[in-house]
Amino acid sequence: MPDVITIGETMVSFITHHKGPLRYADDFKKVLAGSESNVAIGLTRLGHSVGWISSLGNDEFGKFIFKELTGEGIDTSRVKFDSESPTGIMFKELKSSNVTNVYYYRKGSAASKMSPEFLDENYLKSAKVIHLTGITPALSKSCLETFNFIIDFAINNNISVSLDPNIRLKLWSKKEIKDVLLPAIAKSDIFLCGEDEGEILFNTSDPTEIIKESFLAGAKRVVVKLGSKGAYVSDCINSDNIEFIDPLNVEVVDSIGAGDAFASGYLSGYLRNLSNKECGQIGAIMGAYAVTTFGDYEGLPTKSEIDSFLNKKHISR
Ligand code: KDG
After folding, report:
1. Which residues of 116-132 are buried (b: 16+ CB within 10 A; e: fewer)?
2. Is 271 in the pocket of ligand 1 (CB under 6 A)?
3. What pairs with residue 234 in β-bridges?
4. What CATH number does residue 289 fall under?
5. What angle is formed at CA 89 by the lines to CA 86 and CA 64, rounded to 5 degrees?
6. pLDDT tens sequence across 124-152
7. Is 165 inside a domain boundary?
8. Where in the sequence is the domain holding 275, given as residue range(s)?
9. Which residue's alpha carbon is nearest to atom 9 within ligand 1?
């Protein structure tokens, strides 16, 4: 049974190297896109047992996603195939080298039909950590119910809840975001937030203020991710102690997926009972590896690559 369980939608994503409007792109490549499955891949590469729960269309794209994630070593035994609904699709448009725009074709997707009845409670009970993102509750009413059900289930079963708001403004309004995520933050053991997400949730992008507000909301550990500027971590047990995590100086090829990579590194440290600062440092290393390659998760390192990084202090491939 897995140590970490995550639940969420993974789509097939069509990416292009063409810069500019998608109507002129003709070199699409098919890859996976799913925040929760990115975290699952990161944790699996670091040697943890991870289960990913989802629903996929019983179609070619669903079979592609299943094959890739199973091949990564993730436990996909609780993934269901839905013959009535399709696998979600997204297209990524490159506005410039580092600005992307996404187009979703995920309304009515198989994953958006997930509901609490979909869950195997005995399976969930086996986890030490359940990782969720704010994407799932934005997908549909039944996904929102599933999200809330899992959080309460985790609390009642002493399972740590890790929450990344991963705000997608294309999916819901700022009011809906606050209405759903603030109560979830209150119940989270680990809350991983970005500066722009802090602005939406707490009307501030100042890391210290985000941390303060998250603790006031009820979070137990808070991580504020600042991308190439590093990160801050703090724990409610000693909330005045805010520790800075230095960024790694790497050449950024593609920054999407960096937040998920950070989450996987942080959770790996958490599972190994490392200090909050060490958890953040592994998060930063994972994030740095993720941005040095094109794709959300392709560049994520293994545990031995991380160990070698810690000895040599540079990324070697
Ligand atoms: O975090 C990376 C994700 O944004 C990407 O893989 C797609 O999960 C995704 C989403 O819903 O936007």
Report:
1. eebbeeebbeebbbbbb
2. no
3. 222
4. 3.40.1190.20
5. 75
6. 999 999 999 999 999 999 999 999 999 99
7. yes
8. 4-9+35-54+116-312
9. 34
Q: Is residue 19 part of a domain?
A: no
Question: What distance in angstroms lies between residue 129's CA and the mean position of ligand 1's atoms?
Answer: 21
Is the CB–ligand 1 distance for residue 257 below 6 Å? Answer: yes
Residue labelled with tokens 């600062």: 277
C-alpha angle 193/106/90, rounded to 5°?
Answer: 75
Active-site residue list: 260
CA–CA distances in Å: residue 246 to residues 206, 226, 312? 17, 10, 17
**Residue 160 falls inside a structural domain:** yes
Q: Is 83 exposed, middle or buried (0-12, 13-18, 19+ CB in 10 A)?
A: exposed
- Which residue pairs, CB below 8 angstroms and at least 24 apart, start in 238-241? 239/211, 239/212, 239/215
Q: Provide the domain count of the chain.
A: 1
Q: What is the DSSP string of 88-146?
A: PEEEEEEEETTEEEEEEE-TT-TGGG--GGG--HHHHHT-SEEEEETTHHHH-HHHHHH
**Residues 263-312: pLDDT tens digits?**
999 999 999 999 999 999 999 999 999 999 888 898 899 999 988 888 77
- How many Å apart are CA 96 and CA 104, to the nearest integer? 19
Tell me if 283 is assigned to some domain. Answer: yes
Determine contact, residues 264/39, Cβ cutoff 8 Å: yes
